[in-house]
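I'll show a typical protein example:
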Amino acid sequence: MEELHIGRTYELLERMGTGGMVWQARHRTTGRAVAVTLGRHGVETTPDAIGRFLRDAQAAGRVEHPHVAEVLEAGLDPRTRTPYVVRELLPGVSLQRYLRRERLEGEGRLTPTVAASVVGPVLRGLAAMHQVGVVHGGLTPAH
């Protein structure tokens, strides 16, 4: 199987979630696990779209918040002209997996207290992103 990679330094390992634009990846030299967000092929490959994508990455890179994954790198793949953003890969499970696990364990629904403890940090992270002008367009329970 052909190795999937982005830029010159990241090997794409597996898709995260259902959208297919976020991948778990590995830095080829250091072995560090990261998350890579790709621009949508054919949609975000125009000069204006690439500029917007990279400006958003630059703004997100200025955010230092415990509930926002740190931007490590952003660029344009020289082979495919696909823009990408590399972020730290945070430990834990997706909300989708968490909810599935809770249902399987018989809880069915989250209590208001548990729901607030899950949603509160997400909202604080989004607020930090909004302060630098970034609107997250792809937040899903799968990420």
User: Anything to note?
Assistant: The beta strands are 5-6, 10-15, 22-27, 33-38, 71-76, 83-88. The longest strand covers residues 10-15.
